[in-house]
Design brief:
single chain, about 180 residues, alpha+beta, three-stranded antiparallel beta sheet, 8 strands, about 20% helix
Length: about 180
């Protein structure tokens, strides 16, 4: 009988301790990294953690460093904070590091990944004038030809994968 009472008292104490500890963590939530906080403070910032793709194994999101790296994926996309109407324009500002040999292209798409911008952003690929390896800071404008919901980033040409591209921040300004 004494063993049963002692076991019950110990189990109740352990349950109370675990319950308080888990409640404390749930109320506070995970801490936001300084890098993420600074990047999301930029006007029109897109949260890098909202990336979408079918090539999940090619993507690595680092919440502490607040970076998104693609190595071998064909494409990835980010939801826009506001759907673009036909005829509307956005300015896209991306910073990051290119350690690959191919680069990327970008445009806006709908839920079916239909290309919906004119022009496409094509300059940051291996045969383009703006291509370089290392740190980059690029700005370009996209005009929607139909309603668009996503900023799309794809390999530099049809059938080419994105190679060692790390995104540090993306800002979208609606014109």
């Amino acid at each position: 009988m004494k063993k049963t009472v002692l076991a019950t008292v110990l189990m109740a104490a352990l349950f109370a301790l675990v319950s308080c500890a888990s409640k404390k963590g749930a109320d506070e939530g995970p801490a936001v990294s300084a890098a993420k906080e600074a990047a999301l403070a930029l006007p029109g910032a897109i949260d890098l953690s909202t990336w979408q793709t079918v090539d999940k194994f090619a993507m690595k999101y680092d919440d502490a460093a607040y970076t998104l790296t693609c190595n071998g994926g064909e494409y990835f996309q980010f939801p826009l904070s506001t759907e673009m109407d036909a005829g509307s324009e956005i300015t896209v500002h991306i910073t990051g590091v290119n350690n690959g040999t191919s680069g990327f292209r970008s445009w806006v798409v709908d839920n079916n990944q239909t290309t919906l911008s004119d022009p496409l952003y094509l300059d940051f690929k291996a045969d383009g004038a703006d291509y370089k390896t290392g740190e980059f800071d690029i700005t370009y404008t996209l005009n929607a030809t139909a309603p668009a919901q996503f900023l799309f980033i794809k390999g530099p040409q049809w059938g080419t994968m994105i190679d060692k591209l790390t995104i540090k921040s993306i800002e979208v300004t609606y014109e």
